[in-house]
Amino acid sequence: MLLFVTEDRGRHSETVKRLVKHGIFLYVCPYETAEFLCRKKDIGGVVMDCVAALRNGEKLCAAFRRDYPDEMPIAAIAATESIPDLLIDRLIREGKDDLVEEIYDFCVKNCGWSTASLSTFRLTVDEDPQKNLYMGYPFPLPTRAQNILRCVFYRSPKTTPTDDLLTLCFPEGTQSVDNLATQIRKINLRAKQIDPRPLIINEYGKGYRLRDGILN
Fold first, then answer.
1. Cα–Cα distance measured from residue 172 to residue 46, given in angstroms and rounded to the nearest whole number
2. Closest to 91 in 3D by CA, of 49, 138, 120
3. CB burial class (10 A; 0-12, 13-18, 19+) of residue 157?
4. Choice between 174 and 71, residue whose per-residue pLDDT is larger
5. Are 157 and 210 in contact (CB under 8 A)?
6. Cβ neighbours of residue 99 closer than 8 Å, sequence gap 6 or more
7. pLDDT for res 50
8. For the CA atoms of 185, 189, 192, 193, what is the dihedral angle to 10 degrees?
9. What's the pTM value of the predicted model, to 2 decimals?
10. Is 80 exceeded by the pLDDT of residue 208?
11. pLDDT tens-digit map of 55-74
């Protein structure tokens, strides 16, 4: 997962939404909790918004390089006129025409991220939600449901905790546990038209995973 560190979440809300649509799941957090999240979560790369917090970015970059010297790709978003002295893999200028494409390119080239189809014999979750396949049959989904299914598939066979699923698939922070459960019911109802067994299983008190047999 990508860690997106910013003190101005609202300024990047559209960027975050578009990244999720690209299939890139990310935790958005302020600088003060970034190190904690990196220790607790499965983080594969960091993007720091240094436009208004260059000193915080310098401190965080130094901390990550100390704790993860060889295994933490880091990118920094900086103002056009600034010349940051940071041990980073990618410098992204604030004035770039498409910030999303810059971050996406960083994820693919530096973090080993792939948004290619997730596929087994029984289930294919494509970049295009209209091209999904389930048990060999077309399995189109709305974008929101697609994001949820892709995230659960990506993390399977591990169970994705409910809180993580909310954070990763609803980065704008407007959804509740009930909304998530409703979306998953819709996925399972759509899947039931093809196979009577639920596609996504709720492990009570833990979270969600694909049912047994899907990954085989």
1. 19
2. 49
3. exposed
4. 71
5. yes
6. 15, 77, 92
7. 93
8. -160
9. 0.80
10. yes
11. 999 999 999 999 987 779 99
